[in-house]
Each structure stands twice: as structure tokens, then as C-alpha cells.
Task: structure prediction
Amino acid sequence: MVIAHLDPLAASLFSLMTIVSLLLAFVMLGSRWLDNYLYAFAGESWVIAGLSASVGYYAGYPELYLIAILTALFRGLLLPYLLWRIIKRLEVSRELHEILRPSTALVVGALAVVFSLVVAYRIGGELGLAGTVAVLALTVMLSMKLIGFLMLTVRHEAISQILGLLVLENGIFLGAQILVPGMPLLIELVILFDLLIVVACFGVLVQYLMSQIGSTSSFELRRLVG
Result:
């Protein structure tokens, strides 16, 4: 595995980018304001784009340069812009329905990181990758997936749930760049375009909620039961 034989500079750079991505996920988890979600997600996407380009350079995968450019354009610019337009059109600025307060959600997120770290160390030990950046990448990947699931669970604003799903997918994408950098380019492209479809579908859902229920909270869908 190429990632197990990186020079210290590359390993430090990859580690820094993965940690910054995780911190930006915590920014989303600990905020109620939708604008903060967008800024953090856009920043996280740009960091992941930089990570893709760095992996392509140090590991010798030139196709990752294209993935980095598409990631920056689609995840870092287009998706935040589309979500920003939805937010402005609906005049929704903050999360109104939440099961956990942001401070409590941050504590749960920290516990998720500890759990992910334990799992990553166990897997890294079994694969002989202990002490490499692969363990950190696996930790951050699992942590971001759990944080994404947590946002989907404790936030009921439709925009929050879209971003929770995008954070979850960002975690998978980040881990893939380090753990399996040779993943076929076609798969990467399909994932990027699937995100556009997801946002478009959620946009339709949000419009339906506003027209039929008068709220953008998916919590109101309980009225359809029975």
C-alpha cells in the first residue's frame, strides 16, 4: 500500500487536511445557523479537494488532479450555491427543531470520534498499518460518517439533513482518497454527479414541505401518518 510508505512531509500534510476536515464537521454539528453549515461544508470540500491533489502528487495518481478540480467546483462551489439559493428563497436562517442542543451534540460527536479511533486502531493493527496516516484517515472517515448520521437524526430542518448527508458522503470520499487512491475515476465521477441529484431531490422535498405544510422541518411530516 502506497500510503504506508509516505515521507514525513506528505504524511504530515495528509494528517493536517484530514483533521481540518473533521473540525469543520464539528462546526456544523455545533451550530444552529444554516449559513455556518454552508461555509463549513464549502471549506471542508475545498480541503478534501486539496487532499485529492496532494495524494495524486505524492502517490503518483495523476487522475486525482481531475477529481480535485471537480470536487472543488461541485462540492466547494456548486452545491453550496444551490443550497444557499434554497435557504434565501425560503427565508430560513437557523435550525428551529432539534433533539439535542449544540453543546450536547458536540459531546456526542466527541464520543463518536473516540469510538472511531478505537475501531481504526484495531483495524490498523490487524492490517499492519499501525502508526501510519491510514489509521488517522480511517478514524476521520468513520467519525464524519457518524457525525453525518447524528445530524440526520437530531436535526429536523430539511437543509440540515441535506448537509448531514453530504457530510457523511464527504467522510467516505475523504477516506477513499487516502486508503484507496487508485479507485477508478469513473466511480468518483458517478459519486460527484449523484450528489447533484440528491440536492435536487431534497430541493423538491423542501418546496413540497413549504407548499403543503408551511414549514421546512421534516418533523412536520408526522402529520401524514395515519
